[in-house]
Fold this protein.
Amino acid sequence: MINECRDSYFSSWQSVIPYTTPPATASISIIPVFRDFIKKSHLQLGNTPPKIHWMQGLVHGCRAAPTIGATVGTQVTVQRLIEGRISEGDPTFTSMLSSTVAVGIISSPFLAVLNGQTLGRSVSQSIRLLSAKQVGAIVTREISFLFSLRVSEPVSQTMKKRYGDKTAVMVTACYFTGFFGSMIGHPADTALTLWQKNVSIVKPYHLFRGGLTKSHAVGKFTVLYGLINKFINSH
């Protein structure tokens, strides 16, 4: 009887893990890098970024973690469900891209709130001022972000086959997929930040302000996300 209860417990837990891991992992991963997202928003507006002590940065990260973790976790989970329906088997490039676009559209209101947090805006302000062009910018940005997050694992597996199953290989793959994915979608992210502050886009190159800061932050986030996932899956 005890063994049956134990087996039932572990079976139930194993079925829940795929859905609880993404939000928990995203919540933890965002904490040490959130201050970089605050800095990138100031740079996007053409301002000098504030000097944020690492401890203060952790406090900001902890405050934003529940919202960001729930949003990113939900995105990843929904993306996998949609992807599975489309591909009906091993994921393909088309299924990964299609699911990413769908999730980007569905989650746009929540993501407006998240970017608003880096600007010191409340939830109600971000939702009330959400416009069609902001939604367009969010979807464009999320296509690159979520797609890079999704392909980091396949890229990591490919590199492992070639260079060996080493943590350094996984870290490198995660960082660069996150970095370049962020850089591709950065102009859309800048447009969102400017529009949320009612600032017009004067010159096209302004859309790249804060690009390196954000891309390094996303790269580090993707690495932490991958390492925590690896730890959880190995236990």
Notes: The chain has nine helices and no strands. Residues 3-10 have pLDDT under 50 and may be disordered. Residues 41 and 47 are 9 Å apart (CA to CA). The radius of gyration is 19 Å.
